[in-house]
Amino acid sequence: MREEQRTSRDSLPRGIPAVGCVVMASGLGRRFQREGAPWQDKLLADFLGKPLIGHVLDLTETAPLAARTVVTRSEGTAAYCRGRGVDVVLHDQPGRGDAVRLGLERVQALSPEPLAGCLFCLGDQPLLRGESLLSLLASFAGAPERIHRLCRMEAGEPVPGNPVLFPAGLFEELKALPEGKGGSFLVKKYPGQVVYVPVRDELELMDVDTREQLEQLAALAAGER
User: Fold this and answer.
1) CB under 8 Å to 40, separation ≥6 — which residues?
2) Is 17-224 a domain of CATH 1.10.10.60?
3) pLDDT by residue (tens digit) across 26-64?
């Protein structure tokens, strides 16, 4: 078992329950391709000097998490993650729910103790900040039976974003999602259980679908530095 997966609960901040983390990286990246150009693995595309997925790996590597894995269909992404010592589930299952189930089962197996919750992050959300992730974990610690989700505020109302942290009470439903559905299915099913945690900067919640979005987001991020 890799060093990062042997995390002792004694080394984690008091009050934070055991939380696993699944980095979702199973998209096929079709919208990222340009006609006539060679196929490119979106998650390995350069973003501010490192592969796109590298930013989320950096962030989750230092967070107080009990276990972490990346779920992907890409051999290139899997090789990059393994090269960094990150656990990977490389699969060929077709559904979004399959990726959720496989990731959750893996972090449950990796965790040194039963998980109180599981955090689902996107591999293509490079500007997420550590303070926002810690705020999400702190919110969960205060109400570990509820769903916790990052958001931005618009006219006083939360606009949902990612990551989302699900409580252990929903694990079995996460493993049995309807065909074609992801974790958002349960967020919509149980709206009264959702706690929204605002981010400081809405750029944190932006993910990348196209090369144009990658370039625009990189330009916006560089302008803030």
Assistant:
1) 29, 32, 33
2) no
3) 876 567 667 667 667 889 999 999 999 999 999 999 999
Q: What are phi and psi of 177, to 5 degrees?
A: -65, 150
Model confidence pLDDT, tens digit, residues 166-189: 999 999 999 999 998 999 999 999
Strand runs labelled E in the chain: 19-25, 46-47, 50-51, 67-72, 88-90, 117-122, 147-154, 157-167, 194-198
As a dihedral over the C-alpha atoms of residue 129, residue 135, residue 140, residue 143, rounded to 10 degrees, the angle is: -160
**How many Å apart are CA 129 and CA 127, to the nearest integer?**
6
- C-alpha 67/C-alpha 223 separation (Å) is 34
Q: Measure the CA–CA gap between 21 and 213, rounded to whole angstroms.
A: 26
Q: What is the reported pTM?
A: 0.89
CA dihedral 54→57→58→62, nearest 10 degrees, is 180
Q: How far is the C-alpha of 67 from the C-alpha of 5, rounded, in Å? A: 5
